[in-house]
Input
Amino acid sequence: MLKLKNVSKFYYSKGVIASGFTKINIEFHLGEFVAIIGESGSGKSTLLNVISGLDSYEEGEMYINGEETSHYREEDFEEYRKKYVSNIFQNFNLVNSYTVYQNIELVMLLNGYKRKEVKEKVLELIDKVGLKKYKKTKVSKLSGGQKQRVAIARALAKETPIIVCDEPTGNLDSRSAKDVIKLLKEISKDKLVIVVTHNFKEIEDLATRVVKMHDGKIVSDKEVVKTEKVKNLEVREFKNIGWFNKIRLGLRNTFNIIPKFILMFIVFFFVTISLLSVYGSFRKNEYEESKIGYNYYFNDLSDTRIVIKKTDGSSISNDDFNKIKELDGVSKVVENDLILDNTMWFESNDGSYFNLSGNLNDLDSFEGKLDYGRMPENDNEVIYLTTSYDYYFVDKLEEAITKDYYLEGDTETFKINVVGVKYIQDRATIVGVVSNQQNMIYVSGNILDSYMKRINHERSNVNVIINNKSYESYVAPGYNFDIRPTDRVSSGEAYVSEAISYACKDYYCRNKNLKINVKNLYYEDELSLNISRVYTDKTVGELLWLNKTNPINGSIFISNSDYNKLFNKESYQASVMADHPENVDKLCEDLEELGYTTLQIRHTLENFGAEALKILKILKLVVTIILVVTLFFISYFVIKLILKSRNVYFSTLRILGANFIHLKRILDIEIFTDATIAYLVYIGLTLLVKFNVIYIKFIANIYEYLKLRDYVLMYIILVLMSYLISQRFSNKIFKNSAMTSYREEV
Ligand code: ADP
Ligand code: MG
Output
């Protein structure tokens, strides 16, 4: 059944040729229990390895079941091992990190059995070798004798006709040795069992045939017990391990050696963190740099801001605003965006120089938590968002908070009290330029409206026409022709100062006509009023209920409703804030479709030293690439080192007859699982940081700048990396014959 004809085996090592055995002629049959004896170095192991298809032979022919094997390649020998031969070694050759059950199951899975089919058989075999109590015990915890029983059970599970045992008792005490030999004898009934041993005595009574070797040759071959030689060798068809079981083994291997799992996890986690934080900080800088710059026209330079006007120049109605608010990616619509670009300056009027300044904003849009004080309760109360190095609102905060503040140059109408303070976080400074985050004064909607009118007023050209003569009007209390709203005057009327009597016919203004003409970028309007009163310095207080701290002489007072007619027009220009810089482009397209002209504020910035920034950017890119490549190789070598401990496992599987592609898949799955877990842990942490459950600085620093696409890319890199590592590693194991790679490791 198994026949060697003039077979020789040579070893080549370091240029020296050694002979394993020469010109062996022998034939084995089913039913035999063969003992091969001979002194050390006589070629016994070499012969067994050749018979097992673990080593190649250089000369002669070996026949299995009548088929010649000298043309066999490695894949054919894999098949051969799987079909015909089980091995039992002196050092057991088990998977130490697997349980007894798993070791035996392994070979059946590799032979393509389904998991369900396997269970009964494995338990039966465990029972047969007397290890019922130990089926869930890790093999590493067993004694030598017990290990060898597992090896025998595994050999039986493989269901091959030939079982080859190389010094199976070499590491056992004499009692265990006796048991093992007995067990081997028991299973040899319809199989061919070949046992190599030093200790002939232990096998003497049981062997049916004794072969003696000396110096690479067979010197005697005696059949001591006549056996009935079973002629028909029936080999069942073997399937290959299925996907499901490959995944199971891959997963088992991922977790069954905990320190290995942790080390691999750390490496992949480290790779994920490093790549993402390098990439993330690169993106962050890019983003911050894009925000640096200045602009002569706009004050609020948020990168999410889009300034819009109707393309046909008409005003934007409430309906229009509602439509805009429904667009995707809109976070806020500022209907009259003049407030965004006007820095308002407030100062205390007690000569103490306390002051504050910033852009006005609606209290409703205040986000976050106050660092000091409380939320406003009435129209005069405001929240101040300022820097953490603000002298008045940090060093002198207790005092600053008690003061009354007036709009610069107007101690009458616009008084505020700061009741809450919040400090601007992280005003990033890059290459010495301070980013554009503004101080903000959050006021109630009512107050915001009146400021709006005032700003609109300031931004318009206003002329007062009396007696057919036109006089320019400036917004500054106390100047002649300054227009001021009051609820003491009824609509259609105006109170004027005697200081402008010179403009009226006959120096007499009462009941004469006065026109106010307003012109600005968007509209022109004129209002005709009757001068019903002329006031003097003395009568102004009583007439208008004003306390005269500032000179108001020269102003023209009109009713609030008339003032609204002139300055509280519909919006002509508004700002749309996108919820994310990413969405600005798309939003602009949508707005243009609705009939607006758009201007992205971020495109209006002029940069200091743009050239220098460009060079810096290229440099950073180069550094990043070098870093990524280096990182890749470092992790690659670390993982290779960790995987070295897996060599024994894979050569064991090869000896069992597993082929390259299946082993590679099992390894793929193992590494891939490790990488995926590391990746998912990172993603999990990112989500926790995002939803404020925990705070991890390096993640918090970058996650906003990474997009879904970056995370996907990162995962692809990890998967690719695990694939490459697996590829390289399995190629290396399969470079040598199964026995050589096994020998190298043990
Ligand atoms: P045994 O098992 O009978 O002790 P071996 O089969 O191990 O003997 O060895 C037979 C001969 O082959 C010895 O001379 C030994 O030095 C040589 N040999 C065995 N294995 C190798 C090897 N891997 N490389 C080179 N020579 C080897
Ligand atoms: Mg030997």
Remarks:
- The CA atoms of residues 291 and 744 lie 60 Å apart.
- The chain has five domains: 2-239, 245-287+611-743, 293-335+572-606, 337-453, 461-567.
